Structures are given as structure tokens and as C-alpha cells.
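Subject: sequence -> C-alpha cells, single chain

Hey, anyone have a minute? Need the predicted structure for the following. Not urgent.
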Amino acid sequence: MTFEWDDSLSVGVEEIDRQHRELIRRLDLLAEAVMSGRGKDRIKILIDFMESYAEEHFATEERYMEMYSYPGTDHHRREHARFWTAVMKLRDMLESEGETDYLAVSVERFLMDWLILHIKNTDMEFGRFLRDKV
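Reply:
Had a minute. Here:
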């Protein structure tokens, strides 16, 4: 399964869309690696990326939320906190079990769910709000 950016994922703010495109690109690389039996070779790199992505991307979104007094800020921040907690659990698995195919598939599934549920729902709602402001 491959993952590619398309305009249906755009929230209408280039800075946020650029960050989402990079997440999708990384997920696609992992999916390709998992399909070819090399998922465990990419997992540490992806978990490192997810940590830095969470810090940068969530700070970006939350900056826009505060700047424009987004009414859904509390809910959105709770979702960000859930992502961070999940990434820390994946990091713990990596440190305790090492780079395994199971972990690679777990990360792939987690990111697919995040992409579908968070970006397509929560971020799109935020994007609709921002388009009227930015």
C-alpha cells in the first residue's frame, strides 16, 4: 500500500500542509519497506522522525490556534497529547525489544490511523476555520 499526498488532505495553510506531506512521505517509505521485508531497518529512523515531527508540527498548529482563538483548541491539544503518548510507547518498545518487523507494522498502522482520523477529520475542521482567518 502506498500513501501519497493529494489535495483532499490540504488544510489550506501551506506550513501545515508541508508538514503533513512530509509525514505522508515518511509513512509511504515505511510502508514500502514493510512490504519488501525491510520495515525493521527503517523503524528507528521513523520513530526519531515522529518525535521531532510531533514537537515541530504540534507547536505550529497550536501557534495558529492561539493566534486565531480556535474554539477547538482543547480537543485538538488532547489529540496531540495522545499522539505523543503513543510515540513514547513505540519508543519504549523499540528500546526494550529492538528493531522488529512487529514494531514496524505497529508504527505503520498507528500512522495510517492517525492520518485517517486526525488529519482527515480534526485537522480538516481546523483548516476550515483557518481559511476564514489566514
